[in-house]
Amino acid sequence: MPVSSPPLALYVHFPWCVRKCPYCDFNSYAVRGEEGTAGSSQVPEDAYIDALIRDLDAQAPRGLGRALISVFLGGGTPSLFSPEAIRRVLEAARRVFGLAQDAEITLEANPGTIERGRFAEYRAAGVNRVSLGAQSFDAGMLAVLGRIHSPEETCRAAEELHAAGLENFNLDLMYALPGQDVRAAVADIERALALEPAHLSHYQLTLEPGTVFAAQPPPRLPSEDESAEMLAPCVERLSAAGFSQYETSAYARPGRAARHNINYWTFGDYVGAGAGAHGKFTDTTRTLIVRTVQTREPRRYMAAPVESLAAKFVEPHELPFEFMLNALRLTGGFERALFESRTGLKWDKIAAIIAGLEARGLVQREGSRWQATPFGARFLNDLLVRFLPAERERSGRPRHEIGALAIDAGSLSID
Ligand SMILES: C[S@@+](CC[C@H](N)C(=O)[O-])C[C@H]1O[C@@H](n2cnc3c(N)ncnc32)[C@H](O)[C@@H]1O
Ligand code: SF4
To answer: Pairing state of beta strands 288-293 and 278-283?
Structure first.
C-alpha cells in the first residue's frame, strides 16, 4: 500500500525558563540553574539562534517541496527570546522550507516574561498565534505551582494580546490542583473565558516521574474520581461560551482549533529543531516513517546541532499503535482512508482489533469516521494497548510503553 506525503509542520524548541516549575518534565532548564551558566540570567540568544538556523538548514531535505502549514515555537519559554531572535528563526524557516500563505505561527509565552508592547513586536516578527501559560487564576495556587506570574499578569498579557491584534490566542489551564474543588476549577474557567481567548487547553495535573512533585507530592491532591467530577461542569461552561471540545484536552471557538496540533493528531509530518526536539518524516519512495530526536542538553546541542540528530525507522508493526495514540485523541476521530494513507497499511491489519473494541463499546463509527466512545475516551490507555504489537502485549509492559510514548507526543509541545 503506498504511503502518501502528509502536510509538513515545524516545531522549534526553546529550552530555558526563568525557573523550573515543580510539576514540569519538559526539556527545560532554569536560566540560572543550567550547568555551566552559574551567574548568568540571560539565555544565550545569539548562539542558540545560530544553532537553530544550522539545524534547519541541515534538515532541508525533509521538506520535499512542501511549504510549512504551521510553525510552533515552544518550550521551555520562547518568550525569553527577543522579537528579533524570533524573526531570525522564522526567516530561516521561510527560506529553507517556505511558509504556506495561511501558515499558523504560534509562540508559547509565559505571562511573567511579557513586557509592555512585546506582543506587537512578536506579531511584526511574523507570529500570528500565542499560547499563554495561565495555569490558574488563584494567586495561592500559582505559588504552589511555583509559577513566576500573578493572575493580574495573565490578565495584562491577554489585554496586550488583544491590543496587538493577536486575538487568536490559547490559554493553558490545569485542573485537579492541590486542594482544588469543583467550584474553584469552574472559577478558573470563568476567569479564563473573561479574557476572550480563541482556544483553551485544559490539562489534568499529572505527577510526572522525575519531577519535584513526583518526589514530594503536594498535600490534598484530588482523587481520580474528584478530578473526573471537576471536568463535567468545566466542559459545560466552555460549551455554553461557544467552545467545542475537539481533543482530549483542547477546546476552541469555531475555526480556531490549533492547526499545528491537528497535524500531530492526524499523523502529519513535522520537522523538530532545537534541543531535544522530536520530528516525524514520511519517506514515500520507500514507504517508511522516520522519527528524529535532537540532543536534549542545550550546550551539547549548540556545539553540534547538525551531527546530533538521531533518526529511527518506525517498524510497520508499530504503526497502528502510533497512529491511534494520536488520532483517537480527536473527539471527531479519523477516516479509515487516513489510516491507510498515513501508515501505508491496509485496514485489514487492524479490522479485527477495531471490531473487538466496537463490540466492547470503546470505539464507534459515525459515517465513515471512527472515534472513541465517551467510555473509550475515559479509558484511552486501556483501549490503545490493543494496538500494541503482540509480543509487547505478552511481555506485560504496555503501561510503561504507553507512558513513554505519550510523553514523547507531549514533548512535541501540544498546547
Ligand atoms: C511545555 S508547557 C510550556 C508553557 C510555558 N512554558 C508555560 O508554562 O507558561 C505547556 C503546558 O503543559 C502543561 N503542563 C506541563 N506539565 C504538566 C503536568 N505535569 N500536568 C499537567 N499539565 C502540564 C501546562 O499547562 C503548560 O502550560
Ligand atoms: S511549565 Fe512551562 S514555565 Fe514551567 S518549567 Fe515547564 S516549560 Fe518552563
So the answer is: antiparallel
Pocket test for ligand 1, best of 25, 203, 408 (most atoms within 8 A of CB): 203
Q: What's the confidence (pLDDT) of residue 41? A: 61
Shortest CA distance to 241 belongs to which of 201, 196, 184? 196
How many other β-carbons are positioned within 10 Å of the β-carbon of residue 290? 16
Residue 35 has pLDDT above 70, yes or no: no
Please return the burial class of 329, using the count of CB atoms within 10 Å of its CB with bins 0-12, 13-18 and 19+.
Answer: buried
Closest by CA to 117, choosing from 77, 166, 76, is: 166
Kindly state the average pLDDT of the residues 200-212.
97
Q: Could you tell me the three cell numbers for 56?
A: 534547519
Element housing 203 (H / E): strand 199-204
Are 27 and 75 a contacting pair, CB within 8 Å? Answer: no
335 CA → ligand 2 middle, Å:
35
Pocket of ligand 1 (CB under 6 A): 23-24, 26, 75, 77, 108, 110, 133, 135, 172, 174, 203, 205-206, 208, 413
- Contact 80/117 with Cβ under 8 angstroms? no
C-beta 151 within 6 A of ligand 2: no
Give the three-state DSSP class for 187: helix
φ/ψ (deg, to 5) at 218: -65, 150
CB of 289 within 8 A of CB of 283?
Answer: yes
Q: Does ligand 2 have an atom closer than 6 angstroms to the CB of 80? A: no
Q: Is there a contact between 54 and 306 (Cβ–Cβ < 8 Å)?
A: yes
β-pairing, 244-247 vs 250-252, is antiparallel
Residue 291 backbone phi and psi in degrees, to 5: -110, 140
List CB contacts of 102: < 8 A, sequence separation 6 or more. Answer: none
Q: Would you say 27 and 294 are in contact if contact means Cβ atoms under 8 Å apart? A: no
Place of cell 531572535: 85
Taking the C-alpha atoms of residue 305 and residue 315, their distance in angstroms, rounded to an integer, is 26
| Ligand index nearest the alpha carbon of residue 19 | 2
| pLDDT tens digits, 44-59 | 999 999 999 999 999 9
Q: What CA–CA distance (Å, rounded) separates 347 from 39?
A: 57
Nearest-atom number in ligand 2 for the CA of 108 is: 2
User: Can you tell me which residue has the cell 504503526?
Assistant: 319
